[in-house]
Write a structure and sequence with these properties.
3-stranded mixed β-sheet, 53% helix, 8 strands, mainly alpha, 3-stranded antiparallel β-sheet, 409 residues
């Protein structure tokens, strides 16, 4: 079905494909009928989760039995593509790589961030593909080669900004498409994933892939804001960018997309952006006032009272600030014993259930696309926001920031 949808979309750009469409429709129909008789147990996800190669059609929840084609890199930066289940153990991933490389024993799987930070994954770790950082990659090597591993050049991110592309897109359109995509990600998260994430996936041998991708999206949007501003050499253009991102945040708030709202505002408050005094000085007072209001809403004092008070007044559908909900559950779990005198601590379970209920409440009404926005030719905006190209190395962003506006002596 996804293939059929993709070809239908391509027909608009390549008229010759129209002649082939009826034949394809027959094949798709035939395959659909066969699938009903012989249902498939899993799907194959042709996706490198860490590279934003997202399909343009509506997302479907990822299941543990789904299979994934994924690149695993070697010490010399060559790679092998493996096919394993999303919920595969690290040991199964290593075995699949060893089989492809015809290597012997002694291989380890390493999670590598763009900063060069390396973590050796345990053999019983589950579903590691979606736990990578925004520009993170998986490497395989012998244990004695661990210290010699270096990040790929592509992990550094872009060397020039994309303002030329998205300055032509309205802030409202960008915020709307951010919200549509965020809702798809949020709607795919199963409530049980919150529990697996809190208590430990390895205990359940279950994937939290949908939750992982939604949480990583928050970081991606945050770094998108910082990346675009730090790659903009012209002062007047940087001021325009500040204004644009503040407007995007305002529209996200209007759409009750608090996840992207927080991500954009936290991007603006990142030290690589907040230190750009010359840029902020030229921002019109009207925008400074709006930004100050946003910062007040983000105030973490009294357990994020300002944010919680705001959310309590909203009607669903709502896209909540997910990192805070995860923090609430983790705090409850780590601060309270699960068993007391060999009896279940029901007070702890009640507190965790309350957080899960918040997620359920946020999704208790379907997200109805804005009729005016939905009727626009949105594909360019959609394509842009699902494939954000960012720098997620704070040291690199700080260096770029100091190059733009050197520290005053």
């Amino acid at each position: 079905m996804e293939f059929h949808v993709s070809v239908s979309d391509d027909c608009r750009m390549i008229p010759a494909l129209k002649e082939m469409l009826p034949e394809l429709e027959k094949i798709v129909k035939q395959n659909s009928e066969e699938a009903k008789v012989h249902p498939k147990k899993h799907r194959v996800l042709l996706r490198q989760f860490s590279m934003g190669e997202e399909k343009q059609q509506k997302r479907q929840p990822i299941r543990g039995i789904d299979e994934i084609l994924f690149k695993v890199y070697c010490i010399d930066h060559t790679y092998t593509t493996i096919r394993v289940s999303v919920a595969a153990l690290v040991k199964e991933v290593i075995d699949a790589v060893a089989d492809k490389l015809d290597s012997g024993d002694g291989l380890i799987l390493v999670k590598m961030s763009s900063t060069g930070e390396k973590v050796v994954l345990k053999n019983n770790d589950v579903s590691v593909f979606t736990t990578l950082s925004v520009n993170g990659r998986l490497f395989v090597c012998r244990r004695d080669q661990f210290d010699s591993l270096t990040p790929l050049q592509e992990q550094e991110g872009p060397s020039s900004g994309s303002m030329g592309t998205f300055e032509l897109m309205s802030s409202k359109d960008l915020a709307y498409q951010l919200t549509v995509y965020d809702w798809e990600l949020f709607n795919c998260v199963h409530e049980l994933e919150l529990l697996y994430h809190t208590f430990g996936r390895h205990l359940f041998k279950k994937t939290t892939a949908n939750l992982d991708l939604f949480l990583r999206r928050f970081n991606e949007i945050q770094y998108w804001v910082v990346t675009e501003i730090c790659l903009c050499a012209q002062l007047s253009k940087r001021v325009q960018l500040l204004k644009k991102f503040i407007k995007i945040a305002a529209h996200c708030k209007e759409y009750k997309n608090l996840n992207s709202f927080f991500a954009v505002v936290m991007g603006l408050s990142n030290v690589a952006v907040s230190r750009l005094a010359q840029t902020w000085e030229k921002l019109p007072s009207k925008f400074k006032k709006i930004y100050a209001e946003f910062e007040n809403l983000m105030d973490p004092s009294r357990n994020h009272r300002a944010y919680r008070f705001t959310v309590a007044k909203l009607d669903p559908p709502i896209i909540p600030f997910m990192p805070l909900l995860i923090k609430d559950m983790t705090f409850t779990h780590e601060g309270n014993k699960t068993l007391i005198d060999n009896l279940v601590n029901f007070e702890k379970m009640r507190m965790i259930a309350n957080t899960v209920r918040i997620v359920r409440y946020c999704r208790s009404q379907p997200f109805s696309p804005d009729a005016v926005q939905a009727n626009k030719n949105y594909q360019d905006v959609r394509n842009y926001i699902v494939q954000l190209n960012v720098i997620d190395n704070q040291r690199t962003l700080s260096q770029l920031s100091h190059r733009l506006e050197p520290r005053r002596s």
